[in-house]
Specification:
- By secondary structure, this protein is an alpha/beta fold.
- The chain folds into two domains: 143 residues, Rossmann fold (3-Layer(aba) Sandwich); 221 residues, Alpha-Beta Barrel (TIM Barrel).
- 36% of the residues lie in helices and 18% in strands.
- The protein has 15 helices and 14 strands.
- The chain has a seven-stranded mixed sheet. A five-stranded parallel sheet has the order 2-1-3-4-5, with helices on both faces. The protein has a two-stranded antiparallel sheet with strand order 8-9.
- The radius of gyration is 21 Å and the shape is globular.
- The chain binds cobalamin (B12) and iron/sulfur cluster.
- Cobalamin binds next to helix 1, strand 3, strand 4 and helix 5.
């Protein structure tokens, strides 16, 4: 079987998706031919100063033309589709169909929107986990998964700029899943199970990947790296080679002992979801950690020399100017080194999506990435105020 896997990425450079890396590994292990069609190099981010020197752009024509050239050689095209990727995947599926190549859609979008995906060009969809989808292999535990396979990713997806240096980066997750139930998040709807690799198993794989691909920097994409028990983290840190890494945490899991373990293990930067500093908005978001947890966590990381980055959202339903001010103040109180901000985008299947629809804040079908149609907090005046305050804070 010959399978072409599409990574329809537009605006992030320097990451290899874990889902596709596992699917590649399963196909290769079972003797099938596979290739990755990574759309990243057709979008401007790749021209960014950090990556330019690393990029060996192999595109010949436009994205659609290059896809047309390659797709007839395959039996299946597997699309990994997140919200926001569906339009592009639909265009590519149309081309694949001209050559009678079957299109399988997997990942969050088809899992949450199966009928829409079939309408948009999927011949069949994979709901939820898909590691053994093409080969029929069933994997019960994370420890049973094959080691990630990055043989088909372009060099720029290994490029990890950090603090003025460019490293060769690896992407992995030591644990999967989150037990919390934030109202805007699809995680608990899609993947209710919280699982982790055993320490010896993941260390064996990390060492293998470091040696095979020359990895000298890791990004661990676990939803909350510190969700694991202290004893597990301690054992992991003892066996880990010390390669510098970044990860994500929830402030509710942060204790001084865990922060010390992270530091000794080689953690250089931690990202933490703050999202909003307004108690009434936080209640709507169903964030489980307290404002005190966030301040405490930020200060602990600073004390132990781990850089902090925070995720914040604006444009939330019913959000007002003073809510945004509270978010900015909270980032300051937690002494966050690098606050980042995104526009809220409602994801189908979540309670906040339903709330937006019920209150006419979002009109399904009318949405575009540029104009998410959430008007509540995004007047020009508010945005100007926001940009200015954010700049001042940074
Ligand atoms: C790592 C990660 C990334 C990486 C890799 C992205 C990727 N496509 O895998 C990078 C940094 C590139 C990234 C970028 C973005 N991400 Co991201 N990312 C994550 C993160 C932290 C982990 C995902 C992961 O690896 N899970 C583990 C693997 C094993 O599971 P999986 O990806 O779901 O894959 C399994 C199944 O879905 C299925 N599957 C997946 N693809 C396919 C394909 C086929 C053919 C088949 C059969 C099966 C299949 O099989 C896989 C194995 O079981 C999640 C949050 C989370 N913790 O889940 C957010 C998350 C997926 N990202 C999100 C977003 C919004 C983005 C961006 C749009 C952000 C932006 N504005 O740029 C971009 C989109 C880029 C893109 N088109 O992929 C949202 C998605 C929301 C949604 N419903 O669509 C999430 C859920 C975060 C969140 N809560 O908001 N991300
Ligand atoms: S803590 Fe993060 S991953 Fe967990 S439910 Fe909330 S937003 Fe989702």
């Amino acid at each position: 079987m010959k399978v072409l896997l599409v990574f329809p990425n537009k605006n992030r450079v320097g990451s290899k998706p874990i889902g596709l890396s596992l699917i590649v590994a399963d196909l290769v292990k079972n003797g099938h031919e596979v290739e990755i069609f990574d759309t990243t190099e057709y979008f401007p981010m790749v021209e960014n100063v950090f990556f330019k020197s690393q990029v060996t752009v192999e595109r010949k024509h436009s994205l659609l033309e290059d896809f047309r050239e390659i797709v007839p050689c395959f039996d299946f095209v597997g699309f990994s589709v997140l919200d926001g990727d569906a339009e592009l995947c639909s265009q590519l599926a149309e081309i694949a169909h001209e050559y009678e190549v079957l299109c399988v859609w997997g990942n969050n979008f088809p899992t949450m929107n199966p009928l829409k995906s079939l309408d948009m060009g999927a011949d069949t969809i994979c709901k939820g986990e898909g590691v053994g989808y093409f080969t029929g292999t069933s994997y019960k535990e994370l420890d049973d998964y094959p080691f990630l396979n990055w043989d088909f990713f372009k060099p720029f997806q290994f490029s990890k700029p950090y603090d003025g240096k460019t490293y060769r980066g690896g992407d992995h997750m030591i644990g999967h899943g989150c037990p919390r139930k934030c109202s805007y998040c699809v995680n608990h709807v899609l993947k209710p199970n919280v699982r982790k690799y055993s320490v010896d198993r993941i260390i064996e794989e990390i060492n293998f990947l470091e040696d095979k691909y020359g990895i000298n920097f890791w990004k661990f994409h676990d939803e909350d790296f510190l969700l694991k028990p202290t004893k597990y983290l301690y054992e992991l840190s003892k066996k880990y080679r010390g390669t510098p890494f970044v990860g994500m945490v929830n402030a509710a899991s942060v204790t001084e002992e865990k922060v010390e373990i992270l530091k000794k293990m080689g953690c250089v930067s931690i990202s933490m979801g703050i999202e909003s500093g307004s108690p009434r908005i936080r209640k709507m978001l169903r964030r489980s950690e307290t404002i005190g947890d966030i301040i405490n966590a930020g200060k602990l990381f600073k004390k132990h020399g781990i850089r902090t980055c925070s995720f914040n959202m604006i444009g939330l339903p019913f959000e007002e100017e003073n809510d945004i001010e509270k978010t900015i103040t909270l980032n300051g109180m937690a002494e966050i080194y690098l606050p980042t901000v995104s526009f809220f985008f409602p994801i189908q299947g979540t309670d906040l999506y339903n709330l937006c629809v019920e209150n006419n804040l979002y009109i399904p079908g009318k949405v575009s990435e540029e104009s998410p149609n959430i008007v509540t907090a995004c007047s020009e005046e508010l945005l100007l105020m926001y940009r200015k305050s954010w700049r001042d804070l940074c």
